[in-house]
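User: Second chain of the day. Same drill as before.
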Amino acid sequence: MKFEIESIAIIESPFIDLVNMPVQPKGAKDIHATLVFKEKYQEGLKDLDGFSHLYLIYYFHKVKEPALSVVPFNDKSNTPRGVFSTRTPKHPNGLGLSVVKLVKVEGNRVTISGVDILDGTPIIDVKPYIENFDKVEGEVKFGWMNSSEEEVSSKRSDDRFVEN
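Assistant: Same format as last time:
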C-alpha cells in the first residue's frame, strides 16, 4: 500500500550539518529548536502547552537510499545490524522519532529542547508524551545496545549515513 503524507511543520534547529550532531535526544538535553507549523495546522496546537514532553515524528529528508543492514552509532562492536533493530535514519520509510521537552507554544511556533534533528527537517506529526499510556513496566530488554547513558549522551554522528 502506498500513500502520501504532508508535513505539518518544519524544524528550525542549530544543526546544519549531519556530522557531529547528537545521535539521540539524550545527548541534546540543552539544545533548543523551534517547530514552525503551517498556518492551517495552528488550531491543532490548542492545549499542547499543558504537556511537558512531545513525540516528534519526522522525515529523514537527507537520506536517499535505505539499507536493511547498518552499523549503528552506539554499537561498540561495529557489527552490522538489521535496520529494524536500530534507530538509524536508513529505515525504508525514512521516519524518525524523538521525545523532546516542550518549552512554549506561541502562535504557530513551538519551542522545544532536547533536539537531535537537522535544521529544515519536515515534521510529520506531534503527539504528547503521556506517562500513563507510554511508560513501560516490568522487564525491558535492549538487545545488542549496551552503551551506558553517559556514552549515549556524548555520542556524536560521523559521516556513515551522509550521502552525496
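The chain has two helices and eight strands.

User: Great, on to the next one.
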